[in-house]
Amino acid sequence: MQKIIPFIVLIVLIASCKSYNADQTINHGSDSPLVENDTVSISSDETEYEIIIIEPGFNNWIISRARPRGFYSQQWLESRNELLVQSWNQRNLQPARYDPNLYELRIDYDRNTDYGYEVNYLLYNYFVYFQLQYNQRLTSFYPRI
Question: What is the DSSP string of 62-128?
Fold first, then answer.
């Protein structure tokens, strides 16, 4: 009986654990600076491309610490993104050398495609955030904010 009680308590504790998966929205209003959802999805009727960034803390970081839109030219963002994507994809192909939990997915980025300013802006800023957050250095250029 003494051995059964701790086992039952353990089962009750495990059963009471529940994953929380409620739909949340981003509130950009001035009354609440808290960003509740860590998914950024950008798509446009003008372009057929979309970028989806799912990263805890990225929304808050881009609102509070990233350089504002228009700070960089689209050409500058495209040239940086090309180098950063190339480095990212090389690390993605080497899971024994680089943490596969950090470089889970390959990024499909074509330098000859015009993705538009917003996609390039968010992609570049994700790389800045990623490097600062996880202490990684994708290129010799290390972002400063």
Answer: HHHTSPPTTSS-HHHHHHHHHHHHHHHHHHHT-TTTS-TTTS-S-----TTS---HHHHHHHHHHHH
Range of the domain at 92: 35-134
pTM, 2 dp = 0.67
Looking at the domain assignment, is residue 108 inside a domain? Answer: yes
- Compute the average pLDDT of residues 9-21: 47
Instruction: Specify if 3 maps to a domain.
Output: no
Assess if residue 57 is contained within a domain. Answer: yes
**pLDDT per position as a tens digit, 34-82:** 444 555 555 555 567 777 888 889 989 999 989 999 999 999 999 999 9
Provide the domain count of the chain: 1
Residue 127 resides in a domain: yes
What residue has token string 């970081």?
61
